[in-house]
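Suppose you are handed a protein chain with no further information: no name, no annotation, nothing but its sequence. What can you learn? This example shows the usual starting point.
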Amino acid sequence: MNRKKRFWVFITIRTLANSLIILGVVFAFISFWPFVNQELKFWLNNLRGVEYIIEGDEVLAAERSQNALPIINTPKPISIKPINTDFGIVIEKIGVNAPVVKNVDSSNYSEYINALQSGVAHAQGTALPGSTTAANNNVFLFAHSAINPIEARRYNSVFYLLRKLEKGDRIITFYKGKRFNYEVFDKIVVEADDVKYLTEPSKDPILTLQTCDPPGSSLRRLIITAKLVKN
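A reasonable first move is to predict its three-dimensional structure. Written in structure tokens, the prediction is:
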């Protein structure tokens, strides 16, 4: 092969290799954009000293009150229009405003995958918001935290930023038109096969939220536990 042919073979191979690298970068950017977008919004709002106020499907920024009292007995009003008050969940800190699909069999893959396309799933056999006197007062809700546009449909990615919740943060649930406030007291990452947070009954009125960890994977589970706030 003469020098001229070798030169053009080299140019062709290098061009092909560079094109594949660029395509890989573009694909990675597109795949992770929903997750990165949520992270950037959260970071910018914290930097500016603002918090999420949810109105319908839109997340707006509002000035955070420096004198806001902790949620103890009287719940702080929320300037929101919940998507669903028949059964819904709102987490102001991370911009969650979603309906909840009731009595989903968490052991039936096709059932819960279909449910998660419509909202956050409520595990079958667990309590309903506000429950205080049942044999099990644990309200167990779970959702995906998909990180690519194919999987990250409207509600499949609702728990992207669940790990941002800390002790004392507020989670608001609605059931049959009534509002029930919960306050986070525990956050833990467990193995994927650890189901005790779902199966073990609780005499205390609690809310348990579960999603995958890291986001978009099935390696482990992130568990957020909150207690019912008595108003």
